[in-house]
């Protein structure tokens, strides 16, 4: 009997010796680092990775503060002054593109001047990307121009024979937007312009509306509407149908467009000559912004900084130990 008991305990001991390696091998990988310790990283189903953040300024880099509107159903993640809503999950910042939406068209004054708002063009981290967006104009005998200072980014003109947008009818014709009652043009942000080919910083996004030809006074009944929108947005059936049924409905429309972002640190955008020579980051900037090991740093289009995990690693390069192998 004693011998049998000894056998049982020996078998149990052997089993315990075998289990630890199996358990260690099956252990889950460390949870990915998303935000700064103690900071909220979710707004409903949306993930908010650093350098973005909510709440205390400790939770985000300057200019990357977001607000979660918990009163909405589902909750809405808002950017900057609350004019723009983040439309897609940011996820890990593996690229520098952000999808946002805003409500309505760009508001213009009695002289036809307006500005694309949302905290853009004020020295912050956000700017329109070199491609991917369009200028869209709906109206009669009017030209829309998007400028940054003296630099023209896009322009198009819309004509109507009868002074109203009756050209918009159901069917495929309403999706063309080819200059009769509606026009669209790509927004090409080429910053290598100016004397000597030096970079010109984009400091604002200003819209100018100019009426011409006949029926210019008809704007009260058929007001011109101008949008900065994701390429192809107007050619979706829902957008064109809503505008063709009631131009004033534009005030409630959700208009998507793309933003680029980069970390602007002090005078990062000032040395445009250096930026043209090299996309490499200064060592002190790379170490101060790209906090994780196994990262690489590149210069953005406006001279700011972007951090990425090196090949073989993934995660958040902006946070200590954020890149996991």
From TrEMBL:
Gene Ontology CC entries for this record: membrane
The keyword ATP-binding appears for this protein: no
Coiled-coil region: none
Keyword vocabulary terms for this entry: Signal
Cross-referenced InterPro entries: WAK_GUB (IPR025287)
Transmembrane parts of this sequence: none
MF term (GO), any: polysaccharide binding
Domain Wall-associated receptor kinase galacturonan-binding: 39-86
Signal peptide range in chain numbering: none
Membrane topology type: Single-pass membrane protein
Pfam families: GUB_WAK_bind
Compartments reported by the entry: Membrane
Protein name (database record): Wall-associated receptor kinase galacturonan-binding domain-containing protein
Gene source species: Aegilops tauschii
Origin organism lineage: Eukaryota, Viridiplantae, Streptophyta, Embryophyta, Tracheophyta
């Amino acid at each position: 009997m004693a011998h049998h008991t000894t056998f049982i305990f020996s078998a149990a001991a052997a089993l315990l010796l075998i289990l630890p390696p199996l358990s260690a091998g099956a252990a889950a990988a460390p949870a990915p680092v998303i935000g700064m310790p103690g900071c909220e990283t979710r707004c409903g189903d949306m993930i908010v990775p650093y350098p973005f953040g909510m709440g205390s300024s400790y939770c985000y880099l300057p200019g990357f503060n977001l607000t979660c509107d918990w009163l909405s159903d589902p909750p809405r993640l808002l950017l900057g002054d609350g004019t723009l809503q983040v439309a897609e999950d940011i996820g890990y910042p593996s690229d520098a593109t952000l999808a946002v939406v805003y409500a309505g068209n760009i508001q213009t004054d009695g002289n036809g001047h307006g500005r694309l708002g949302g905290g853009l063009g004020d020295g912050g981290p956000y700017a329109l990307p070199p491609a991917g967006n369009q200028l869209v104009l709906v109206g009669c005998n009017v030209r829309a121009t998007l400028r940054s200072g003296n630099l023209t980014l896009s322009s198009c003109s819309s004509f109507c024979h009868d002074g109203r947008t009756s050209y918009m009818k159901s069917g495929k014709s309403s999706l063309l937007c080819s200059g009769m009652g509606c026009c669209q043009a790509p927004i090409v942000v080429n910053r290598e312009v100016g004397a000597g080919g030096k970079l010109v910083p984009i400091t604002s996004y200003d819209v100018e509306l100019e009426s011409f030809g006949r029926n210019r006074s008809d704007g009260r009944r058929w007001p011109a509407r101008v949008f900065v929108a994701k390429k192809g947005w107007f050619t979706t059936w829902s957008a064109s149908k809503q505008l063709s049924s009631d131009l004033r409905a534009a005030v409630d429309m959700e208009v998507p467009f793309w933003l680029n972002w980069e970390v602007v640190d002090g005078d990062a955008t000032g040395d445009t000559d250096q930026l043209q020579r090299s996309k490499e980051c200064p060592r002190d900037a790379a170490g101060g912004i790209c906090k994780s090991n196994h990262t690489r740093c590149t210069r953005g289009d406006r001279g700011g900084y972007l951090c990425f995990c090196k090949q073989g690693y993934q995660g958040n390069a902006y946070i200590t130990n954020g890149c996991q192998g």
